Amino acid sequence: MIIYNRFFIITVIFLLLVSCSLVNKESNVDEVVLKKYTADWKSLQQYEVPEWYKDLKFGIYFHWGPYSVPAYENEWYSMWMYKEGHPINTYHKAKYGTLDTFGYKDFIPMFKAKKFDANVWADLFVKAGAQFAGPVAEHADGFAMWDSKLTTWDAKDMGPKIDVLGVLEKAIKARGLKFITTYHRHWLYAWYPTWDKNTDASNPLYDGLYGPKVPKGTFVMADKPTSPLPDNRFNQEWLDRLTELTTKYDPDIVWFDNKMDIIHEDYRKQFLANFYNQGIAKGKDVVVTYKFQDLAVGSAVLDLERSRMSEKKDFTWLTDDSIDWNAWCNIQNPAYKSTNRLIDFLVDVVSKNGAFLLNITPTAEGEIPEEVEKRLLQIGEWLTVNGEAIYGTRPWKIFGEGPAEVIEGHLSEYKNKDNTENDIRFTTKGNIIYATVLDWPTDTIRIKSLSNNEDIIKNIELLGSNQTIIWEQNETELQIQPLKVKTSDYAFVYRIEFKK
Q: ω into residue 228 within 30 of 0, thus cis?
């Protein structure tokens, strides 16, 4: 009897285990187990862009730091001021003195931001129609814009004496926007002439700002190989500061500038795994962006700089561009882009499955320049009327029609001309197609890709107008008669509803 009972018990246990195994297979239990990323590309390339990010189309960020004090030429002032013979070097020595007595560090006490108000900025971002916003956390200059325990060269300990990231995170998230922060620290390596004893950059007292001592000629542009590459100490510091930034301020999106390839890939992979797993632990999906080949394709979102795609892409992408043609920070003689240009750029990018991150240029005192604010409010007014053709949309089977051709490539936006009334861009949502005409039409609008050969149109409206639209759909094209009175100064959106 004892042997029989033992056999019976063992049999029951075996059947229960088999049953549980079958139940697990039937219920796809793997799908409910939290996904954990490991620091290897195969694992990281399993990343999927979250739907909430695909719905985001317009964001705002800003270059703001000690380089905003001289406000001269561009945000690379901190490097060019040390380059003998460069116009910024000449300007700096004439205005501030020699580089051994007045270096970049001496701009930090002048960066006081007395008029900065995070809530005022966040309110403006909302009025501009932005869905995500945030600051440059650390530029190539090595000055951290947050309250860091890893350095005293930060905005809480020096300069404005404000935890800039902290107050902006709170203000931006309180208004329902996603929080983005950008990280450029890899550019710091050899940014300053730490080898040059004629400058303050060689003084070891300031290596917390200026970075490690490197041989002359180490700094090169991003399209050339760097030699020698950063050592493990610099790599680890890059990761540690980034980890502090992301764990303390919990951004939804982390944006990287290019040249990140000089950081050993083990550190890059480790950050991605850490950040993605951090998101999982908090029950949220997060996003990372990169340029060029700095991260493996599929492991994050590709970002372009001052450029855009010429055709629609089947993957989600981002582009960042500045409101100023010549600089990313506030300068004395800005050349702001027109609101019309910015809106057309947004529409074109969204039609090709992209999103637009617009850089703005606060002053050292912490104010948004009047002309910048004016453009943001005009964009916001346009989005209030036409936002349904932008927010939450997806690209159609083609991005648009018209003669405009986009020249691709890094920093290529200077080469692209303004759009005209003959350029039309499409987005879609459900059974609605939005046809955005990029200037006021003066003659019949003809859209060949919307003939009646496939889908039959039920109704057409012009967003922002209650007037009846006269239209005709035939076997070769859709014809829309424009209204006699112009309804806006910018792009015009026709909401086209189909019978299906």
A: yes
Fold (CATH) for 41-389? TIM Barrel (3.20.20)
Q: How many CA atoms lie within 13 A of 457 on its CB side?
A: 25
Q: At what angle do helices 370-386 and 339-351 cross, to 10 degrees?
A: 50
Residue 189 is predicted with a pLDDT of: 98
pLDDT at 435 over 80: yes
**Tokens 């949502």 appear where?**
429
Instruction: Report d(CA 224, CA 359) in Å as an integer.
Output: 26
DSSP 8-state code for residue 394: B
In tens, the pLDDT along 38-69 reads 999 999 999 999 999 999 999 999 999 999 99
Q: Where are the domains of the chain?
A: 2-31, 41-389, 400-498
Question: What is the separation of C-alpha 8 from the centre of its chain, rounded to a whole number of angstroms?
Answer: 64
Class of domain 400-498: mainly beta
What percent of the chain is predicted at pLDDT more than 70?
93
Output the CA angle 169-172-173, nearest 5 degrees: 80
Please state whether the predicted TM-score (pTM) of the whole model is above 0.85. Answer: yes
φ, ψ of residue 480 to 5 degrees: the values are -125, 130
